[in-house]
Amino acid sequence: MTLDGLWKELQDLNENEVETIHKLVQALKRARVSPLAYIEEVMHFQSMGYDKERAVHKHRMLVTDELRNRYKILHGGITATFIDTAMGDTVFKEVGTERRSVTLDLNVSFIRPGMEGWLTSETQVIKKGRTIIVMETKVWDEEKKLIARASSTFFSQS
Questions:
Q1: How does strand 132-140 pair with strand 46-51?
Q2: pLDDT in tens, 34-91
Q3: Among 74, 84, 124, 126, which Cα is nearest to 105's?
Q4: Do residues 123 and 154 touch, judged by C-beta distance below 8 A?
Q5: When you count CB atoms within 10 A of the terminal residue's CB, does the N or C end of the chain come out lower?
Q6: Distance between CA atoms of 24 and 14, rounded to whole angstroms?
Q7: Structure pTM?
Q8: How many CB atoms are located within 10 Å of the residue 109 CB?
Q9: At residue 99, what are phi and psi to the nearest 5 degrees?
Q10: Which of 95, 97, 96, 91 is nearest to 152 (CA)?
Q11: Contact 141, 117 (CB under 8 A)
């Protein structure tokens, strides 16, 4: 694909589609200089720190039109990606970024649809072994309604 070819593809887009392309290009450019992956930039993923009192790592993401499905709700795969990303960030906070860590399993229960605004997740480490970390995550919308919960096992090694 050349820039000329891309320009031709863009010619018949409506105003909303052009805005979507603009947002995706901005996320792609942010990913060049950010430690976050492209999809994390598209989600506006943010680490909100550790809540010592509740023993949870907090994260958030923004529901945008680009992340909604045909029913105008947050796509379930994006919800799962948000949870997996929050858990992955939690692993790095717990064991350090010099270790390689991957998801072994992820079980997500969808409770309510994610509709709009910021979603907040809280991830709790259930068990941290030498190479295995078990976690649980809950996700709420801005109205403090639970929209999803998940459990996962990560493998981490030097």
A1: unpaired
A2: 777 888 989 999 999 999 999 999 999 999 999 999 999 999 999 999 999 999 999 9
A3: 84
A4: no
A5: N
A6: 16
A7: 0.89
A8: 10
A9: -90, 150
A10: 91
A11: yes
**Predicted local distance difference test score (pLDDT) of residue 31:** 83
Q: Summarize pLDDT for 109-124 with one digit per residue, the tens.
A: 999 999 999 999 999 9
- Is the pLDDT at 106 greater than 80? The verdict is yes
For 47-68, the DSSP string reads: EEEEETTTTEEEEEEEE-GGGB
Other C-beta atoms closer than 10 Å to the C-beta of 26 total 12
Segments in the chain forming alpha helices (H): 3-10, 15-33, 38-42, 76-95
Q: Could you read off the pLDDT of 7-47 as tens digits, one per residue? A: 888 899 999 988 888 988 888 888 888 777 888 989 999 99
Is there a contact between 63 and 114 (Cβ–Cβ < 8 Å)?
yes
User: What are 98's two structure tokens?
Assistant: 């010099």
Q: Is 133 helix (H, G, I), strand (E, B) or coil?
A: strand
Q: Strand, helix or coil at 69? A: coil
User: Distance between CA 52 and CA 50 in Å, rounded?
Assistant: 6
